[in-house]
Amino acid sequence: MWFASVVERHELISDYRQVFLSDQPLIDLRAPAEFAKGSFPHAQSLPLMTDEERAKVGTCYKYYGQAAAIKLGHKLVSGDVKAKRIAAWLDFCRVHPQGALFCWRGGLRSEITQQWLAEAGMTYPRVAGGYKALRRFLIEQLEQIVMSTPVVLLAGRTGCGKTQILQHLSSSIDLEGLARHRGSSFGAHIQPQPSQINFENALAVALLKHRAGDAPALLLEDESGHIGSLTLPLSLREKMAKAPVMIVETPLAQRIENIFSEYIVQRLEESLAHYGPQQGFEAFAQYLQQSLHRIRRRLGMEGYQQLQAMLADALQSHRQGNATNHYLWIERLLTQYYDPMYDYQLTKQSRSCLYSGSAKGLLAFWQQHQADIGG
Hints:
Layout: E1 12-13, H1 16-21, E2 26-28, H2 32-37, E3 43-45, H3 51-64, H4 66-76, H5 79-95, E4 100-102, H6 108-119, E5 126-127, H7 130-148, E6 151-155, H8 162-167, H9 175-179, H10 196-212, E7 218-221, E8 226-227, E9 230-231, H11 234-241, E10 245-248, H12 252-275, H13 280-294, H14 296-299, H15 301-319, H16 326-347, E11 353-357, H17 359-374
Parallel strand pairs: 1-5, 2-3, 2-4, 6-7, 6-10, 10-11
Antiparallel strand pairs: 8-9
């Protein structure tokens, strides 16, 4: 829309599948606001224009036409500004010689960047069709792969270790890992969730890699339609609603230990690393209190107040060096909230169950029978 220049026709990349299967490093030349809405797993934001510059050029184009916008664009990105941006692109190109660059449609922004890089002695390819073509490819592939791939769901009570099972199998995709959320009221991570577009793009790439691996079936955790603030694509939700399940059964004591390890020990370590020793524990305590508060209505006032008091006591003891009281409220939360909810949901479902038993037995069953399931 802005730089009008006759540029040499540099190398174009149009094998989008290989771009994603190879985790090809990408320069995203779009403005920061465009990048924030969504990009690709191995793309880095190195914009040709800032948001403010892009807005000025767009307004100029709207009121005064293309020629005036072109002139303004050259003025805004010139001198030291231009030199610094070229230097950043060159640094990326040297670190990632097998990479590529893209803009919104693979047009002027990426063409002019290629030209400037060539003038600086660097030949670097651009993606044909830009972001729009890559995004369309991923959406189409997601729909096709979901439609044609046999799906099995991994189910089990809270804390039974489903994520660990998924991580042991190359034929699985960890939806919660892609969503950066554990899927429960206590599931938020310190780092925010990706945007909806970034989640969908990452999921589509994971599906492409699963398909390329020739696994006969896909194993996913039994999720609702939402993981935190993110929504699973409709086609996948519909496929999962009809998929058979495998249920992992884990003793209550082990489930409590799993929850303690993940939500207490690991979360506190992450909080201390992120916020520092002064604020880390208080941020950790606030996370637990807010997570419990979110389900207060489902717990009922009496149940919530009891758990709130148990949590407060556990945090006080924890501050003094004793974390064991967390086991008490975790056990009550599992047995009085999560387990009854899980039992109720099972009664509302009519999906076939392929296996029910220990994690070790489930892994053996999957390795032995996934080809039959896929067939």
